[in-house]
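User: Predict the complex with NAP.
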Amino acid sequence: MSDGRKAACIIGWPAAHSRSPLIHNYWIKQHGLDAEYRREEVAPDRFADFVKNLRDHGYVGANVTVPHKEAALALTAPDERARAVGAANTLWYDDGTLRSTNTDVEGFLANLDSTTPGWDRGLENAVVLGAGGAARAVIFALLAREVQRVYVINRTVERAQALQKQFGARVKPAKWDEITGLLGGAGLLVNTTTLGMVGQPPLEINLRCPASLVVADLVYDPLVTKMLASARDRGLRTADGLGMLLHQAVRGFQLWFGVKPEVTSELRALIEADLRDKAPEKKATEKKPQEKPAKLRGGGNKKRG
Ligand code: NAP
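Assistant: Here is the predicted structure with NAP placed in the model:
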């Protein structure tokens, strides 16, 4: 960049699917900033070089998406959150040092705080489905909010056990067939698996639970997953994946451009419309969903970060 305009970008391989440019350019326009947010398609073998020279490429910072989030952690000075999650998704310069964080933690919390206020008041037990990168962010967030027990159910049990090792005894690996009993005493259920996402098997779950259970899904495509729809049918309070995606973007924008942006209903509508617009194209190009619904076992593992 030579025009002095501040710029940030999303670095991915591919990066075309990312909604980050829509989100950040909406805020740039809303705040009347002389700034720009771009996409950078960077292959894995060029990533280290690109990040080390981020400033020379004209950027004050960046978001990082698949498959670079783990590499970004190693190439930057990560904070406690990024280290706990094992991945960095937001980079910025601080006095010449390229720092990184993982904003999924605060995105998850801010979304629940704004859509289901009071969700953590006296919350003793939470049930988390999945044990990947997103689960680590959610567990870190729940432990920070003093949730006493976080039950983790995952297809690959060893990954849930590894989370107990990482985060301590408040994390409790559990089995799928224990879910009904666990939901009976839980205040929060969170899906962090890819199940229910377009092109993936659905998440089959029987929500036999108290009316006070709050249900959150990190999947945002479709906007209303089967799990969220059945929770709403039962009158339960819900928080969706799009809300988390929007809230996690706030910190990066503030770090790069010095203004704390707001997650408005207008912004949400913009991204919803984009998700709807891309739906027919997705149907035409994506692989058929697998035949059998999955109950946290079997099947593939394709996702978008
Ligand atoms: P990840 O690290 O690849 O983990 C995927 C998880 O899904 C693992 O627990 C995996 O179980 C499970 N899984 C995948 N296929 C399965 C199947 N067929 N049956 C049962 N379990 C299956 O992915 P991630 O980064 O954690 O992302 C997970 C989801 O969260 C994605 O949909 C992603 O888009 C979403 N996400 C959303 C936001 C947001 O802002 N809304 C932010 C981050 C992530 P195994 O361990 O057994 O493989």
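The chain has two domains: 6-103+245-285, 105-242.
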